[in-house]
Structures are given as structure tokens and as C-alpha cells.
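Thread amino acids onto this structure.
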């Protein structure tokens, strides 16, 4: 049983805390039907104390309270040490023994720097987890939960429940921070439990909640002392066992680890020791800001408008003329944008994922299928866009399947940017894709990693175009659900992230939207997400478009707020405004610019481990799809169970092979898939999914 407290407490007055815990547990015991269960009480981050106790002294006093009430006790508080006052998260057993402590890594960005404050900034972190009656528990104190890599690392350490004791304030980013905690639960298929004091010092707003892996949130009722949520750990374990869309399982972790290592090597010198005291932290803010100067372009357009085009296209199937349909889809998309494209304020038009050709291959998919749909950059379809860009003097971006003859037989899901003179200035290949389930046999850079780097180099994975309308980057659809992508783009300088996407209509939409807004907030970057308004699966006269794609194109401000949304399906355009001067003002504030405090030294070693899907899974034959039937995911899941990263659900035979309720059709071995592809090559479709 999990209990979340909103009562403010002081680490130097544990007598008052003991009286509160005693009264709270009397209420809890009346609701507890299993006398053997050991409840866990999560306290907020303690209010600052004039004379912070030493860590051992505080834990001993808290241990006495836990043992007296037979309750596991967790929270965060400032403790004094040789380097200053540092926030630590703690978890004590019902016998009063420390189960884990977690030094806070991030500085005090929300409440501001204290006179003697320090933190574990820039140091390799040990992400520790304890096994309890409510599940495997880890702690991210305060702002640490706002850093996606810390939550990911804690999950790979075995966490099922991430405790987040915080000190909150009611500023303009309060809702974005709350939303970020929802995103963390969804991204890690975990629970996130938040405890914040109401009526403390400063007077914090109500933020206590329990968030489940789908983003569903149980909030505290106003200023009530206690929140008694329902935490079903077996439901979480069954969800993880289902494999489908479990990010800690399929993330391309080692690809990012390579980049983090390169960033660390490029530093001119080691990071200084964490500052101590307000003046030292302010100096550190200035040092970090000086490392990231403002763009120096003299032709920079500080404010302009963009068009997000919500298209309705036609799916290309086996019996169709692919060239004709691609051209027709492209022309219809351009007609949508044309009405406003010549408006002097419009400088950029962005189109959805697959807007030229649809998803294609429904019923059967193989690399051959995608080759029928894919285009080359440059090519005849791109020429239509280039002519449009030149005619209207605007930048254009979108996403298609792409063939690159330097890796013959492979098809990438790629995004592009064309400048206002018609030149192709940017190309990005989707890194996190549905290929992990075998349901979309395109190639991701990780799948052919060594060959890819030999041809293009690592920096080509995260390209950023420095233009007069800002530093533009792209990510595609499922990429935005993985915070590592947008953060890497930001590290390479991105200010405006263009996100062509084709998100299906379903119960996962709330998680996608929480992630989208968090990508903008946590990177202080605009995120522009054009989506298909629908699509024609059948092309006959009188046929209606399908309802799987229902639009909801969105423009997200750099603070995580929604600027605009196309509030329904169908073809339309959504206009949005970009203000680069306002963005740079926000980035100049070290208290709100989270990437400023993102040091890969903290977590790079975790990403370099045996976590996520490994690189180089695709062999030399482009027809032998390595992901058919969830094979690599099943292997990784079994390794997670063996190492305690995940816990197997009750009632699941550990000797039985891992299955998934989401497997589409028969699981073919690569050689079987290749033989089928060869047999049906002439049809242009092969592997049934």
C-alpha cells in the first residue's frame, strides 16, 4: 500500500513528524485489510532548515519513526556535509533500516539556490533500487525527474515505482513540470509517485499524485494531507511482459551511449566540482551559458509564421501505380498549403509523415514493399516541392520512405528540409521506429550501425540546419516518444524541431501528447507536429477516408504549452508563430534551461550497458528482416528477467517462451522470410504481418 503525504515537515523537528506519522497511520490502518502488508509513506521534500542535520543523524531519527509505526518511510531532505547542504532521497524499511539513499543530481532550479546548497551535478550517478512490498522502488528527488536520462537509468536499474519527493512553486512552468512526470511514467512503463508539500515554505501548490504507465493520474484532493492511490504492481508487470511499446526494452541505448561518450571526450577539460552556495551556483550558471553563445547570423529572422499541413492521402497498395499516386498525393498536399504559402509572414511549411505515399503495404510488408513506395532525394517528387519552395520563397519539410543507393536494398524513414531557394539542405533518418516489432521493415541507422557510420559518420544521425529562420532539426513520429532524440538534437543546437508524424487514433494518444509537450519544455525548443487528417484505403468512387488517422496536428511552444491544434480530422492547415528572440530569452535563464544542466557523465555508463536493443542487428541481406516475430525483443526481455531489470508477472511460467498479445501473424525466421520474399518478389509484397 502506497500513501502519499502533502504535509510540510522540517528535518530538524522530527518530533512533529513522528506525531503526524502516528496520526496518519491510524487512518491508514483502518483501511488496511492485510495486517502483514507493510505500507510505504512517501513524504514531500522537507522545507529548508536553518541548521541542516547530518545524514546519519536524520536517517536514525526517521528510522525510529518508521520502526515505531511499522511503515516504510520515504522522502527527501537537505543534509549537511563537507561540501555543503545537499538534498538526498531516502527509503527506510518498516524496521527503520536504510534501504537506499539517492543524492540529488540536479541543482535547485525550482526553488532557487540556497546559501550553502550543493548537488551531485556532473558526477557519475549510482541509480539504486530497493525491493519492497509495493514493487521495486527507486527515488529521483526534486528536479531529477525532469531529466529523462535519470528516469531511464533508474528503470534499467530495476525500478517499477519512481518516487519523486519535491518542493514546488506556482510559476509559469508548474503545469509543464507536472506534465513531464506523466511523460516519465509513460516513457518508462512505470509508476511515478509525486509528493509535494502544501503550505510549506515557500507555499507550494498541490502537486501530489500517482501516475501510471498509461499516463492516468490520481491527484491529491486539494490541500488534503494524504493521498491513498491504488498501485497495482502486477498490472504493470503484465504490461511490460506484453513487449509492445515498452521503451526501456527497445530503446537504441548503445547508439546514444556512443554519442554521450563523444561529447565527454570533446570537453576541453573536466567539469568543475559541484558548486557550494548561492554565489558559486550563479557563477556556474554564467559559465555554462557562456559555453552556448547565441547564434551569430546577421540575416536571422526573429519572428515568422509557419504552416502545418494536415493532409488526406491515398494508400498505395499492390494493384496501384505507385508513381501516379505519389505524385497525386504530393500535389494535393501542396494545394492545401498554397492558399497561405505566399503570405509574407509565412517562412516554413511542414507536412506529415508518409504524406506522399501513405503507410502502404497493408496486409503484407517487406523491404520490397517499401521500395515501391520510397523515393530518392533528389527525385521527381522532391522536384515538385523544390519548385513550390522556390515559387513561394518558403522553407519546406516532411517525411517519406527513402532509398539511398549507398546502402542498396535498404529503405529509410527519412525527413527532409528544403530551403527557400529550392535546395535540399537537411536529411534525417528515423532512429526509433516500429521496425522493432517486425511490423515495418524499414531500416534504422542502429540496425546497420557500423556500416552507417562508415558512410555518413556519427554527426549525420542528428543533423541540424543553421538557417535564417533558426536552427532547424527534424524527428519522425515515434521518435518523439523517446526523449533521447530531441535532447540530442538540442545538444547539436536545434531551436525548432519539426516533427512529421502519423499517430494512430487510440487510447495511447494522451501519452503521446504528454511526451510531445515535454519534448518542447525539457529542451526549450518549439515542436511542430503535422499529422494526417485521414487516408483513403480504398480509392473507388464514393469511398470514405478511414478513421485511423484523425489529425490533431499540434504546435507546441518552447515552454511546453500548446500554441495551436487542428481540432479534428480531415484536410486543413494550422498556422503557428515562431519567436526566436523569446526562445533565446528563455534559454538565457539558467533556472529554466534544462539542457544546460544535462551532463552525460551522470548516465553515459548506464546507456553503454546491455540495455535496449543492440546495434547492427540487420545482416548483409536487406531481405532478411531481423525483427520478424519480436525475436530480438523477446531475447532482451528474457535477459531483463534473468538480471532483475524487470520482474516476471505472477502466474507466468519462467520456462515458457516469451510471447506477446501484439504479434501480427506468424513469427517467421529470417531465412523463411527471405524465401517468401524471393517467391513473391514480382508481386512487390512479401512478409505477412
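Threaded sequence (689 positions):
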Amino acid at each position: 500500500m502506497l500513501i502519499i503525504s502533502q504535509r510540510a515537515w522540517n528535518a530538524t523537528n522530527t518530533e512533529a513528524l513522528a506525531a503526524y506519522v502516528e496520526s496518519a497511520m491510524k487512518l491508514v490502518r483502518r483501511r488496511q485489510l492485510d495486517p502483514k502488508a507493510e505500507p510505504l509513506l512517501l513524504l514531500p521534500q522537507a522545507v529548508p532548515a536553518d541548521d541542516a542535520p547530518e545524514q546519519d543523524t536524520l536517517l536514525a531519527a526517521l528510522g525510529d519513526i518508521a520502526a515505531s509505526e511499522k511503515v516504510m518511510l520515504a522522502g527527501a531532505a537537505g543534509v549537511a556535509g563537507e561540501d555543503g547542504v545537499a538534498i538526498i532521497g531516502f527509503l527506510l524499511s518498516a524496521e527503520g533500516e536504510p534501504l537506499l539513499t539517492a543524492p540529488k543530481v540536479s541543482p535547485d532550479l525550482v526553488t532557487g539556490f540556497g546559501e550553502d546548497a550543493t548537488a551531485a551535478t556532473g558526477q557519475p550517478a549510482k541509480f539504486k533500487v530497493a525491493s519492497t512490498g509495493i514493487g521495486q522502488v527507486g527515488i529521483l528527488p526534486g528536479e531529477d525527474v525532469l531529466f529523462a536520462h535519470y528516469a531511464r537509468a533508474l528503470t534499467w536499474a530495476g525500478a517499477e515505482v519512481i518516487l519523486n519527493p519535491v518542493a514546488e512553486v506556482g510559476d509559469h512552468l508548474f503545469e509543464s513540470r507536472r506534465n513531464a512526470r506523466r511523460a516519465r511514467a509513460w516513457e518508462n512503463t512505470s509508476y511515478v509517485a509525486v509528493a509535494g508539500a502544501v503550505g510549506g515554505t515557500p507555499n507550494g501548490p498541490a502537486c501530489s499524485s500517482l501516475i501510471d504507465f498509461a499516463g492516468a493520474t490520481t491527484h491529491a484532493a486539494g490541500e488534503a494531507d494524504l493521498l491513498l492511490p491504488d498501485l497495482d504492481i502486477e498490472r504493470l508487470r503484465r504490461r511490460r511482459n506484453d513487449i509492445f511499446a515498452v521503451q526501456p526494452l527497445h530503446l537504441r541505448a548503445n547508439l546514444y551511449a556512443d554519442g554521450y561518450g563523444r561529447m565527454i571526450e570533446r570537453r576541453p577539460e573536466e567539469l568543475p566540482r559541484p558548486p557550494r552556495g548561492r554565489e558559486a551556483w550563479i557563477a556556474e550558471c554564467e559559465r555554462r551559458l557562456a559555453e552556448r553563445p547565441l547564434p551569430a547570423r546577421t540575416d536571422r529572422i526573429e519572428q515568422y509564421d509557419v504552416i502545418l499541413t494536415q493532409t488526406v492521402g491515398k494508400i498505395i497498395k499492390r494493384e496501384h501505380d505507385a508513381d501516379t499516386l505519389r505524385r497525386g498525393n504530393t500535389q494535393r498536399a501542396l494545394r492545401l498549403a498554397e492558399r497561405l504559402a505566399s503570405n509574407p509572414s509565412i517562412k516554413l511549411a511542414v507536412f506529415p509523415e508518409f504524406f506522399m505515399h501513405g503507410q502502404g503495404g497493408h496486409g503484407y510488408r517487406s523491404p520490397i514493399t517499401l521500395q515501391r513506395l520510397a523515393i530518392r532525394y533528389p527525385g521527381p517528387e522532391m522536384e515538385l516541392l523544390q519548385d513550390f519552395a522556390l515559387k513561394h520563397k518558403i522553407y519546406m519539410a516532411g517525411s517519406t520512405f527513402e532509398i539511398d543507393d549507398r546502402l542498396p536494398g535498404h529503405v529509410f524513414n527519412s525527413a527532409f528540409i528544403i530551403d527557400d531557394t529550392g535546395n535540399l539542405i537537411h536529411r534525417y533518418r528515423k532512429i526509433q521506429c516500429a521496425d522493432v516489432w517486425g511490423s515495418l521493415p524499414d531500416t534504422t541507422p542502429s540496425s546497420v550501425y557500423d556500416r552507417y557510420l562508415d558512410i555518413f559518420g556519427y554527426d549525420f544521425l542528428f543533423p541540424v540546419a543553421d538557417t535564417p529562420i533558426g536552427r532547424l532539426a527534424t524527428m519522425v513520429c515515434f521518435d518523439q516518444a523517446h526523449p533521447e532524440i530531441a535532447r540530442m538534437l538540442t545538444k547539436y543546437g536545434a531551436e525548432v524541431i519539426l516533427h512529421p508524424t502519423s499517430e494512430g487514433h487510440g487510447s495511447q494518444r494522451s501519452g503521446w501528447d504528454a511526451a510531445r509537450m515535454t519534448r518542447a519544455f525539457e529542451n526549450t525548443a518549439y515542436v511542430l507536429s503535422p499529422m494526417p487528417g485521414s487516408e483513403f484505403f480504398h480509392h473507388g468512387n464514393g469511398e470514405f477516408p478511414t478513421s485511423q488517422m484523425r489529425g490533431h496536428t499540434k504546435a507546441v511552444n518552447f515552454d511546453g504549452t500548446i500554441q495551436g491544434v487542428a481540432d479534428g480530422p480531415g484536410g486543413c492547415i494550422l498556422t503557428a508563430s515562431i519567436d526566436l528572440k523569446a526562445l533565446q530569452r528563455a534559454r538565457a535563464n539558467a533556472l529554466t534551461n534544462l539542457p544546460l544542466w544535462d551532463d552525460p557523465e551522470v548516465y553515459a555508463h548506464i546507456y553503454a550497458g546491455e540495455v535496449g536493443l543492440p546495434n547492427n542487428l540487420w545482416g548483409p541481406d536487406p531481405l532478411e528482416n531481423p525483427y520478424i516475430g519480436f525475436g530480438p525483443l523477446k531475447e532482451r526481455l528474457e535477459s531483463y528477467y534473468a538480471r532483475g531489470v524487470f520482474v516476471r508477472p505472477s502466474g507466468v511460467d519462467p520456462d515458457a517462451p516469451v510471447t506477446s498479445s501484439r504479434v501480427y501473424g506468424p513469427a517467421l525466421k529470417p531465412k523463411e522470410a527471405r524465401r517468401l520474399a524471393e517467391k513473391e518478389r514480382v508481386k512487390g509484397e512479401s512478409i505477412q504481418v
